[in-house]
Amino acid sequence: MANPFATESNRLSAVVMQELWPESGYTRTLVTVNDTAATLAIGTVLGKVTSGGKYKVAVETAVDGSKVADAIVIQETAVPGSTDTKVLVLIKGPAVIKKSGLILDASYNDDTKKNAIYAALEAKGIQVNDAV
What is the dihedral of CA 77, 96, 10, 29, to 10 degrees? Predict the structure, then answer.
């Protein structure tokens, strides 16, 4: 039997509180994601692979550079897996985002690891706010 309850994806307003010139794309860009098959929800934190510059979901145990938060998905996108896929992301500030709207990999399982993600985003001018 199918799930009788409707499910809804994260909305942009659940993640981004404020962004400089969103209509001009100043803080946004398309990046190339090459990762395992999945649907990247709005708020998913991506890391950039050092070799080649493609993106994938940031995982705390990654050794390819993608451990460091570099972008936040702002348009839900299906990634078919092992295929380059363009994804719209928030790449830099000035911007303010809601901490509660971020989607982190389960490997970021304590405050120290999460704080490393927040610090990496803040270094890019993306302020991480505790607002609900």
Answer: -10
* Whether 20 contacts 9, CB under 8 Å: no
Write out the two tokens for 49. Answer: 């692979």
Any idea which architecture 12-129 has in CATH? Beta Barrel (2.40)
Q: Is 118 helix (H, G, I), strand (E, B) or coil?
A: helix
H-helix segments, the chain: 111-123
Residues in a beta bridge with 89 = 29, 73
Residue 50 DSSP symbol: T
pTM, rounded to two decimals: 0.90
How does pLDDT run across 50-89, given as a tens digit for each residue?
A: 999 999 999 999 999 999 999 999 999 999 988 999 999 9
Domain definitions of the chain by residue range: 12-129
Residue in the structure block whose two tokens are 């010139």? 21
